[in-house]
Amino acid sequence: MKTIKTCVTALISALLVFSPVAYADKWSDQFPHIKATGDIPGECSYESMSKKNYKGKTLKINTHAVPVMGEPTALHAEQFAKLTGAKVDVTHTPAGDLYAKAMVPFQAGQAPYDIVFGFSNFINDWKRYLEPVPKKYVEMKQMQDVTPSHIGIASWDGVMYQFPVDGDRHYLKYRKDVIDNPKYQKKYKADTGKELRVPQTWKEYGEMAAYFNGWDWDGDGEKEYGSAEVMKKDDLMYAAFYSRSAAYSKNPKTPGGFFFDLETMKPLINNPGFVEALTDWVAATKYVPPGGINFGLGDEIGSFGGGQTLFSFSWDDAFVAAMQPDSPINNKVGAAQLPGAMKVWNRTTNSWDEGFNQAPFFVWGWAVGVAKKSKEKEMAFDYLCFFANEANHQADIGIGRFGVNPFRNDDFKADVWTQIGWDKDIAQSYVDTLAQMEESKNRVFPLRVPGTFEFNAALATAAAKALAGQLSPQAALDEAAKQWEDILNRVGKDNVRAAYSVGVAMEDNKL
Amino acid sequence: MNFKHKYVFLFPGLFVLIGILIFPIIFTIRLSLSGWNSYTPEMNFIGITNYIRLFTDDPRFWESFFRLSFLSVTTVILQYIIGFALALIVWREIKFKRFFRVIFLIPMMTTPVIMTVIWRTFFHESLGPVNDLLGNLGVKPILWLSDPVIAKFTVIIVEVWQWTPFMFLLLLAGLLSLPKEPFLAAAIDGASPFRKFVYVTFPLMAPISIGAIIIRLIEASKIMDTVFVLTSGGPGTATETSSFYIYIKGLREFQMGYAATLSFTYLVIMIISLTIIAKVLTKLMIKE
C-alpha cells in the first residue's frame, strides 16, 4: 500500500513539476516550428487560439513574396487555420508592388484583403484606411515587451495602426575572422600604418574595405571583396544612403530635422553632410564585388552571407543568415553600430563641427495592418496577435530568410541567441549593438510623410546617377533637392510639415 | 425590313469597341487632367498642369524616350537581319530543315520574365558563368549590367535573342508564299545567288518585311519586362525606358494622374512616329 501511495505521489509530483513542459509539448508535437520552446502561455498562444472558432470564415492576406515575410505569413496562416478552423487565403506580392496592391483598392473603397503587409513608412499614406489596433491588444502582455522605438514606429500620434511583427535597423556586419585576426592586424598595420579594428568611421570602413578587396583573404580559392551594399536603384538603396549619411548629417546640436529643416521645410539632402556621404559611397563602387552596383537586398544578403565580402550594412537578415548552421561563415561574423564620422555638418553655423559623431538609423521594416473596411477585423487581429506570439516570434527571429527581426526587450538577451547555436561573444556583441541603438539619443527615423515614395524615389534616382558616374555627388543631390522642392509644392508644405514633425519629435527624443 | 434595324446588329461590336478601346483612352485623358496620387486620391481637375510639368520639367521622361528609340530601333534592325538570314537558311533544301525551324523558334516560346532572370544570372558579374568562361580564356570580367554603356547592349542581346524568332517566323512564312516564277526566270538568266537575293527575293519580300518591322517596332517600343528584371533601369538611369518610367511614376510612386499624362503623350508620339516610319519604309523598300 505504501508503495502504491509513493508511486501515486511521485506521479502527481512529476505532473505538477513538468506540467508546463508537457503543456508545451502538446503543441510543439503538432507544430514542429515551435519545438525549441513549445507553446508559451499568453493571450495569443497556441492554447488560447485553439479555443477560438472561426469555422466557415475566410481571412484574406496580402503579403510579401516567399521567403522574406511571405514564408512566416503562410506558415502562421496554416497554423492559425488548423487551430481555429478558419480558411486563410494568402496572396504573395513582390516588394515593389505591395504599396500599390493595397492602395488601389483602398482608394476605391474596397477591401479585397483583410490584412495587408507593407513597410512601416507606408503608415502616413495607409493610416486612413487601416483599423487602429484595438485596446485589448495594445495593452496585452506580449505588446508590453515591444521596445518604445518600435511602438513609436507602428503608431501615429499615439494611435497604433500597425501590429508590431518585426523590428528593423541598419547596423554594421563584419568578418570577425579577419578583423580580429592577429596575422591580418599585423599585416594591415605594416602596410598602412593604421590599426585593423571594427571601423569607427566611414572613412576607416572605406580604407579597410579597399585594402581587403579583390584577393583571397580567407583561403577558399576565391577572391573576396571589401563590402556588399544595396546600391540598386528602386531596391531600397535610399535606405542604405540614409545609413551612410546619418553620421555626417544628424547633428545632435541642431534638432529639428534630418531630411528637412522643420521650420522652413527646406530639404537638407544636398547639404555638405549628405554630399560627403555620397562621395564616400561613389568611392565604395571600387570595393564592392563585380556587379555590386546592381546589388539589391537579396544580393547583399547572399554576398555577405555567402562569405564574399569583409563588410556589409543593412537589415538583420544578412547577419542572421550568416549565423545559421549551414552558412560558410557561421560564427565568423560580428555586429557593431553603423560607423560614425569625425565631423558632422551644422546647418545653423553652416560649417562642420569637428569631433566623433554616430547616429543609428532605425530604418523602416515590415509592417502589417487590418483594413478598416474588413468584415473580419476580430479574426484578423487574432491572426496578427498569433503571428507575433512569443513562441512563434522566438522561432521566427532565428531563421534569417524569414525577415523577422528583434523588436522586443527579451530579444536583447544573449541567451536567446546562444540557444540557437551562436557563440556567446557574437550573441553578446549582437544584442549589445541593438541595445545601444535603442539607447542612443542621436537616432534617425525613416521619412514617414505624404508622398514618401516620391521623396525616396527621387533621392534614389539621383544617388544612382552618382554611383553610375552620370552626375557628380553634389549635382546629383542638388537635382534630388530640387525634386523634393517640387514634391513639397505638389503635396503642400504644411501637410508634409505636420507629418514630419512626428518623426522629428522621435528623433529629438520628445516622444 | 426597316432600314434602321440593321444598326442594331452593330451594337454588340460597338459596345465591345467602346469598352476595351474608347473608354480606357477617354479615362486616361481624364485622369491625366487630375492630380490623383497617394495623398489626393480623387479625380480632381487640375487642367493641363501635368502636361506643363511634362514638357517643361521632366527631362527624365524625354531621356528615357530617346533611350527607348535607340534600343528599339537597334534591336529590330538586328532581329530583321538575323531573322531574315535564318529564314533564308531553312527556306532552302537543307538537312534537318524541320529540326532547325523548331530550334530557331524556341526562344520565342519561352516566358520572357523567366528567360530574363536566367540571362541575368548568366551575366551576373561576379557569380555568373559568362564572366567565368571569359576569365578562363584570359578575358577580364565585363561589367555586363553595371556599366552604363555595356548595360544597354546587354538589354539588346536579350531582346534580340528573345524576339528574333518572331521575325524569323514572319519572314519564313513570307518566303514560302513567294511565287516560283521570278526565281525560275532569274535562274534561266544565270543570276548569281547574291543578285537573285538583291533583285528578286528582297523586293518581293518588301511588303512582308515592312509589316514585320512595324509589328516588332510596336512591340519593342513597349519594352518593360526585360529592363525590369535585368537592370531595373540601371545603372543610374542608363537603361530606363519610357514604359518602365511610366510604371515607376504610376505604380511605384502612385502618381496616377501624372502617369496617365505620360501614357497618353507616349501613345500620341508612338502613333505619329510609327506612321512616319511605315511611310518611310514603304518609300525606301517598295519600288513602283
What do you see in this structure?
The complex is a heterodimer of chains A (511) and B (288). By secondary structure, chain A is of the alpha+beta class. Chain A has two domains: 15-164 and 364-405, D-Maltodextrin-Binding Protein, domain 2 (3-Layer(aba) Sandwich), CATH 3.40.190; 171-341 and 442-507, D-Maltodextrin-Binding Protein, domain 2 (3-Layer(aba) Sandwich). Chain A is built from 22 helices and 15 strands. Chain A has helices spanning 2-30, 46-50, 70-84, 95-107, 123-126, 135-138, 141-144, 148-154, 176-179, 182-192, 202-211, 237-249, 272-284, 297-305, 317-322, 377-387, 390-396, 414-418, 424-439, 452-467, 473-491, 493-507, and strands at residues 58-64, 87-93, 115-119, 130-131, 155-156, 159-160, 171-175, 225-228, 260-261, 266-267, 309-314, 333-336, 341-346, 351-357, 366-371. In chain A, the strands form five sheets. A five-stranded mixed beta sheet of chain A has the order 2-1-3-15-4, sandwiched between helices. Chain A has a four-stranded mixed beta sheet with strand order 8-11-7-12, sandwiched between helices. A two-stranded antiparallel sheet of chain A has the order 5-6. In chain A, helix 11 (202-211) packs parallel to helix 13 (272-284), helix 12 crosses helix 13 (272-284) and helix 20 runs antiparallel to helix 21 (473-491). The radius of gyration of chain A is 24 Å and the shape is globular. Chain B has 288 residues and is an all-alpha fold. Chain B has a single domain, classed as MetI-like (MetI-like fold), CATH 1.10.3720. In chain B, helix 3 (59-91) crosses helix 7, helix 9 (193-220) runs antiparallel to helix 12 (256-285) and helix 11 runs antiparallel to helix 12. The model of chain B has no long low-confidence stretch (mean pLDDT 92). The chains are: A alpha+beta (511), B mainly alpha (288). Chains A and B meet through helix 4, helix 20 and helix 21 of A and helix 11 of B.
